[in-house]
């Protein structure tokens, strides 16, 4: 099994070395690393060039993160595809080996991640677990950790990748199509912490980003005929509160 990891980046010189090193360190499985850069003006590309394991690098303007992710899908040659952001990294060097093992009889897998402090990455701010997740929870806007989602390429092809009209919730929209609308999807949970995620991503940056994300989640569900009220959407926040006191495994 060959796994493609796609990293989308723009001016990520401060963090991307951790991402690249963690992919290079993966063992026990064939890995292809594709980097899609949005035309960085800092040292991002110079840093990428120091990692010979990177199979493909594209640097050009894009129309947003999901347009860039679709470019990565188009260039991926693996049997399985996942995404690792330019400020995230694998917590362990057998993360993709665990993914491959659990994909033996599945079409998609999700694992756990830790959200860490941007300035002190040893400080865990939140444990984002996929344990207990069920597809019906997507109706409340609750989704498993997308940086731990790995999907067989034929399923990506069938679903048509990401809807680039979204600015923040395109991964949520894809997961709804994958696990809620496509009821036949065979998926499994990897019961391990796979990824560390720096606090401050597009969906966690500030209040306005949260408001926009909630609007996009509502739009995604309603466009698919899945009714949801704003009150029900905000009911997912108790799940997040529990993640503040949970501990990674």
Automatic annotation (TrEMBL):
Residue ranges constituting the Glycosyltransferase 2-like domain according to the UniProt record: 4-158
Spans traversing the lipid bilayer: none
Protein's UniProt keywords contain ATP-binding: no
A single MF term (Gene Ontology): glycosyltransferase activity
Keyword Nucleotidyltransferase: no
EC supergroup of this enzyme: transferase
Keywords attached to this entry: Glycosyltransferase, Transferase
Listed EC numbers: 2.4.1.-
Pfam families named among the record's database cross-references: Glycos_transf_2
Gene3D superfamilies: Spore Coat Polysaccharide Biosynthesis Protein SpsA, Chain A (3.90.550.10)
PANTHER family, A to Z: GLYCOSYLTRANSFERASE (PTHR43685), GLYCOSYLTRANSFERASE TAGX-RELATED (PTHR43685:SF11)
Entry protein name: PGL/p-HBAD biosynthesis glycosyltransferase
Organism: Sphingomonas dokdonensis
């Amino acid at each position: 099994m060959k796994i493609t990891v796609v990293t989308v980046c723009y001016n990520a010189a401060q963090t991307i070395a951790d991402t690249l090193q963690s992919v290079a360190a993966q063992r026990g499985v064939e890995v292809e690393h594709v980097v899609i850069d949005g035309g960085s003006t800092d040292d991002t590309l110079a840093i990428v060039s120091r990692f010979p394991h990177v199979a493909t690098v594209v640097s050009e303007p894009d129309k947003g993160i999901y347009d860039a992710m679709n470019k990565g899908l188009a260039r991926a040659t693996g049997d399985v595809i996942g995404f690792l952001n330019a400020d995230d990294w694998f917590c362990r060097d057998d993360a993709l080996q665990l993914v491959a093992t659990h994909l033996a009889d599945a079409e998609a897998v999700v694992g756990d991640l830790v959200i860490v402090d941007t300035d002190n990455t040893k400080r865990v701010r939140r444990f984002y677990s996929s344990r207990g997740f069920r597809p019906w929870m997507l109706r409340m806007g609750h989704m498993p950790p997308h940086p731990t989602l790995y999907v067989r390429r034929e399923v990506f092809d069938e679903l048509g990748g990401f809807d680039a009209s979204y600015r923040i919730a395109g991964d949520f929209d894809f997961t709804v199509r994958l696990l809620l609308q496509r009821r036949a999807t065979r998926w499994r949970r990897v019961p391990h912490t796979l990824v560390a995620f720096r606090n401050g991503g597009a969906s966690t940056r500030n209040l306005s980003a949260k408001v926009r994300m909630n609007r996009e989640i509502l739009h995604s569900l309603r466009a698919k005929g899945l009714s949801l009220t704003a009150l029900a959407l905000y009911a997912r926040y108790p799940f997040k509160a529990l993640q503040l006191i949970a501990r990674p495994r």
